[in-house]
Each structure stands twice: as C-alpha cells, then as structure tokens.
Specification:
This protein has about 325 residues and is of the alpha/beta class. It has 2 domains: about 270 residues, Carbon-nitrogen hydrolase (Nitrilase/N-carbamoyl-D-aminoacid amidohydrolase, 4-Layer Sandwich); about 40 residues, no CATH class. The strands form 3 sheets. Strands 5-4-3-2-1-14 form a 6-stranded mixed β-sheet. Helix 5 links the parallel strand 7 and strand 8.
C-alpha cells in the first residue's frame, strides 16, 4: 500500500473557529490539488493552543455543524483535525479527529496533559484514557497528540496494536535557542525521538507542528515525515508556514519488521507481570517497613475473672482500637 501524506504547518488564530475552518478548507483544497491522500493538521489548530478560559466557548460536540462541514471536506481527502471535543457529560478534551470519506473513523483524546512550566492543560482539559490503533483505508494507523509521544509507552502500545504509522499533531513551542544552530533545543529533541521511535518500532512517524505566536510564545514548526529506518522523507521549514508532501509505502514496514522482528518477539506476559509488580510496589514497601493491619490484636495473659475484669478488658480493647485508628489517619 502506497499513499501520499501532506502536513499543513499553519498559524491558526486563537479562539477564532470560523477563520480556522476557512484555513482548513484552503489547505484541504491544496492537498487535493497536489494529489495528497491524507492530510495532517497540528494540535488544536482549529481553535489555537493557549485557550485557557475560552475552552468551553470553542469546544465542539461531534454532532456540531462545524463537524458536519469537516465531514463533507473529508470526501475530498482524509485528514486529522486538532480541536476541543465536548463529551456528552460536558467534559472538554484536547482531541485529534480522523475524518475519512465523509465520516469520523477515530477520535484520540490526549492522554498526557502537560502541566508544568508554560503549560497548564490539566486545568482546562479532561484526560484521555486509551491508546488505540485503528483501521483506515490506508492500513492500520494510530494518532498520538504532542506530549503523548514523549511517553514511550504510548508508541509501544500503538505498535503492538498493529499500527504501521503514527500521526502526531503537535503544538510545540520553541525553547533553548543557541547561537550557530538552525533550530532550538526543543526542535532537536523532537527530531531525536521521532527518529528513534520510527526505527525502534519499525513504523512511519508523521509529525505535524504549528508556527506563529500566542501570548508571546512562539512555535517552531519543523514538521516532518520519517520512514521505519528513521530516514527523513519530508521536512517543513522552521518557524514559517509550510505545506509538505511525502510518500508512505507500507511495504517498507513489512521489510523492516521482517529484518528486525522485535515486535514479533515482544513478551507481553513479561511486560504485564512486571508492570503489575511495579504498580503494587508502594504497598509492598509500606508492608516491608512495618505497616500493620487494621485488625484488633488479641490479648494474651491471665484469665479474666468476674464482671470487673471483663469490663477492664472491654475498656482496654476500646482504647487500643482508638489508638490504631489515629495511627492509620497519620499514615
């Protein structure tokens, strides 16, 4: 299976759905003109990234008129849109929606929400709870959003679930500018992990970043497409809008996984068992350090005689029970 993938490296307007919808339509028509089969838009590119309190105002339910318009556009070319999804229970997700042939084929809700430094996503977004590959007309693929890809477990899960390609919409800011370097430190790190993941898991990595400025923060662009050997097929400009196309041949995935069958040899039982052991480790550590159960200890000693003796025993049990309850609260 061979198909052409395009990446629309754009500069969306913060909080302006209609303007960004028009930009989507423009890039989709360009993709059709350049005979792309699949088009990747950046993270939250339908709304802008630093939304903060605007999140509820730009959120879309999957039945919204804007979504219906995007479905129509996907009859011309398949694409991944970055938007704020509102669920039926009024939660808001940083989501990437895969549109194909007039329908929604897959929705990925960002799993790892950065909340450090300049990032504050957990304050405004609910967290996704799954990583799944899915079947498209191009083959089995997976979508991961920006920070998701910084956690190796997500790519590992997607590869084991059969993904031959990872689509990663991103809104990565520039950080650590150094003299004599064409890109910033953040860009260099992204390029390193993109190549490492592509080669390690024998899959295509399609990384789509944005450009422009929001609240004084700049985005570095540099979108790219890599093959399963870590070779760069297409590379967008740094810091400027761009539109790049590269060819994906899934036969390359087959050849690479035949030569290096690491996924075939992966021991799932070993991984699951060790993860279960690690998850239980905090409890085991407390136990090893002398954690006592909450059961009331039995009394040993002389035989209790008479009503007064029984009453003293009852009072001691009550007293010990209260002390144990206080100890548990302190822990």
């Amino acid at each position: 299976m061979t198909f052409k993938v395009a990446i629309a490296q754009i500069n969306p307007r913060l909080g302006d759905l209609q303007s960004n919808l028009a930009l989507y339509e423009e890039k989709i028509h360009r993709g059709v003109k350049e005979k792309a089969d699949l088009l990747l838009f950046p993270e939250l590119s339908l709304t802008g990234y630093f939304l903060r309190d605007m999140v509820p105002n730009v959120a879309l339910k999957l039945s919204a008129p804007e979504i219906k318009e995007l479905k129509k556009l996907s009859r011309e070319v398949s694409f991944v849109a970055g938007l704020v999804e509102e669920s039926s229970d009024y939660r808001f997700y940083n989501a990437a929606v895969y549109f194909e042939d007039g329908e929604i084929r897959h929705v990925h809700r960002k799993v790892y929400l950065p909340t450090y430094g300049m990032f504050d996503e957990q304050r405004y977004f609910a967290r996704g709870d799954r990583v799944r590959a899915f079947d498209s007309k191009f083959g089995r693929i997976a979508v991961l959003i920006c920070e998701d890809l910084w956690h190796p477990s997500t790519v590992y899960l997607a590869a084991l679930d059969g993904a031959a390609a990872i689509l990663c919409p991103s809104a990565s800011p520039l950080r650590g500018i150094t003299d004599q370097q064409v890109q910033d430190d953040n860009a260099r790190y992204w390029e390193l992990i993109n190549r490492a993941y592509a080669e390690t898991f024998s899959l295509f990595v399609i990384y789509g970043n944005r450009v422009g400025f929001e609240d004084g923060v700049g985005f570095w662009g540099g979108s790219e497409l890599l093959d399963p050997a870590g070779r760069r097929i297409a590379k967008a400009k740094y810091y400027d809008e761009d539109f790049v196309i590269g060819e994906v041949n899934l036969e390359v995935v087959r050849r690479k996984r035949t030569m290096a069958p690491l996924l075939r040899d992966e021991d799932l039982d070993l991984t699951i068992n060790e993860l279960m052991r690690i998850r239980e480790r905090p409890f085991q550590t407390r136990k090893d350090q002398g954690f006592k159960s909450s059961k009331v200890q039995k009394f040993k000693g002389s035989r209790v005689r008479g009503k007064k003796g029984k009453e003293r025993l009852r009072q001691r049990r009550i007293s010990l029970g209260l002390k144990q309850a206080k100890g548990r609260k302190k822990r």
